[in-house]
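Support reply, case 0932

Customer input (verbatim):
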Amino acid sequence: METNTILLIVGGIILGLIVGFFIAKTLEKSNASRLIKNAKKEALSIIKEANHEGESIKKDKILQAKEKFIELKSEHEKVILSRDKKMAESEKRTRDKESQISSELSKQKKLNSEIEEKIKDYDYRIEHLDKKKTEVDKLHKSQIQQLEVISGLSAEDAKAQLVESLKGEAKDDAMVYVQDKMEEAKLTAEQEAKKIIINTIQRIGTEEAVDNCVSVFNIESDDVKGRIIGREGRNIRAIEAATGVEIIVDDTPEAIILSCFDSVRREIARLSLHKLVTDGRIHPARIEEVVKKTQKQIEQEIIEVGKRTVIDLGIHGLHPELIKMVGRMKYRSSYGQNLLQHSREVAKLCGVMAAELGINPKLAKRAGLLHDIGKVPDAEADMETPHAILGMQWAEKYGEKAEVCNAIGAHHDEIEMKFLLSPIIQVCDAISGARPGARRQVLDSYIQRLKDLEDIAFGFTGVKKAYAIQAGRELRVIVESEKVSDEKAANLSFEISQKIQTDMTYPGQVKVTVIRETRAVNIAK
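Our regenerated output:
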């Protein structure tokens, strides 16, 4: 009985499980079908929205494409219009050129026909003159034969007597004739040259600056002097050893003197002292460090000065080494004249003068700036070479043109001038160096040069007085009217100028003026 009960219970449980399983499957299928329906509805709505958005995007893109097309079309039309305009202008210029060329051709044809007519006329005249010359020669020979018969002398004897009798008179006449012709030939060229030189000088503004061997370093108070001197003078000794400049500390209030012939070393010492005083730390180790930094600073400044100079003058393509040499000119002087200022001035003068003469002004500026680079040698061995030759060698080494190299080497007549640019450099160098106040000379040598000028004049016969004026630029000679005629006065001026040119050395030119004065004096009683 219990066994049947257990079996019934187990059978009921199994039957319940089977029924529950079928019920669960039925519910699961209904839920799945419902979910699939919902998913299909959502997919359909998403597809619908996507299609709607796609249509809107498509319309926007079509509108943008149309706008871009319209924009490109307008730009293309503008380009076509500009091209048509340029083509029209080109056609107009071509027509103008063709008309101009046709007019020139007609003029040339007319000139050719005139020239041919003149050539024919000249040929006819030459033929006629040849015939006349032959007839004149025959008549001349017959006249000579008749004269020989009448005088009893041969033609050679008569000629010798005539030459001997007229020798002195012919010499004076010939000198006057030659002098007149020379003056007549030089008149136009001399006037034009004076005009060019005067215009060139007037268009250049110059500065007068004289370098010396001493710089003054100003200090705020005399207490700083003690710190610069240091214990037992060790700081001054360190500065002098590092820079090669003599430091002079005396009773001058608020000033220290820096003495050295080399302006670069003097500038290094001045800047080093300024840094040391500003910093306040002054001792030998610090001094050496500051001097080394200042030397590098000066080297960089030299390069910057060179670059600024070539930019100011409009010179391009200069080798870096030549730019460095140009910068070093700032710290060099020649006869007391700053070398860089002198070279800039010569470059500007050359540019103006070359432009007036129709020569390339940029090339003239280049040669004018570089003409004295040989005065800043790198080594002692270079100092034995004349500065013009040394500068020419450097210019050739760094690829300068032949005209520039020849102008540098020939500006003191140490080599032959081969180009028209060379005398322009020489003249402008003389103009810059001969300006009043540009250079200074020792007084004794200056006075001696003026005395030598006057002594040369007194060495000629008939000279009564001689005066060297205008700082030796002009020599006025007064002659005795009884001993020197007007014709001889012109010859005397030429001979004195040649004597000065061969026997003396001087900057620029010396004008020789011979004055002959005749006085008639009577007394009314």
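We compared this against your earlier run and they match. Two observations from our side: Strands lie at 214-218, 246-248, 255-259, 333-334, 337-338, 463-469, 474-479, 511-516. The first strand starts at residue 214 and ends at 218. Please reopen the case if you see a mismatch on your end.
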